[in-house]
């Protein structure tokens, strides 16, 4: 498992991950979300929705991994979207992704 996915698991155990469409949108709107990750196999509509919402609220967005990988990294069934609500975890994951470039889109 990659370092990013391991980091997501650690953040989940620390209670710093929000999953699910509505919960993530609420976290973005409230300013609670520090980083949003959308699965690369999410629908085009879902990717566009989160890309636009994150741009509006100036929340960093990553599109990468597939829903199976995201879900298993946080110990849940398939997940299409996750939000990190802790700046420390968000910074750690962003730095790791920049080094490994395992994803298709970073904003």
Automatic annotation (TrEMBL):
It comes from Paenibacillus lentus. Keywords: Ribonucleoprotein, Ribosomal protein. It comes from the Bacteria. GO terms for cellular component: ribonucleoprotein complex; ribosome. SUPFAM superfamilies: L30e-like (SSF55315). Gene3D superfamilies: 3.30.1330.30. This is 50S ribosomal protein L7ae. Residues 4-88 form the Ribosomal protein eL8/eL30/eS12/Gadd45 domain. GO terms for molecular function: RNA binding.
């Amino acid at each position: 498992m990659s370092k990013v996915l391991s980091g997501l698991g650690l953040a989940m155990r620390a209670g710093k991950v929000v999953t699910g469409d509505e919960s993530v949108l609420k976290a973005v709107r409230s300013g609670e979300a520090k980083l949003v990750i959308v699965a690369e196999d999410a629908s085009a509509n879902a990717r566009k929705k989160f890309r636009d919402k994150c741009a509006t609220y100036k929340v960093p967005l990553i599109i990468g991994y597939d829903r199976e990988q995201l879900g298993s990294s946080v110990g849940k069934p398939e997940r299409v979207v996750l939000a990190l609500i802790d700046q420390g975890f968000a910074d750690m994951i962003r730095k790791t992704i920049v080094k490994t470039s395992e994803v298709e889109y970073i904003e």
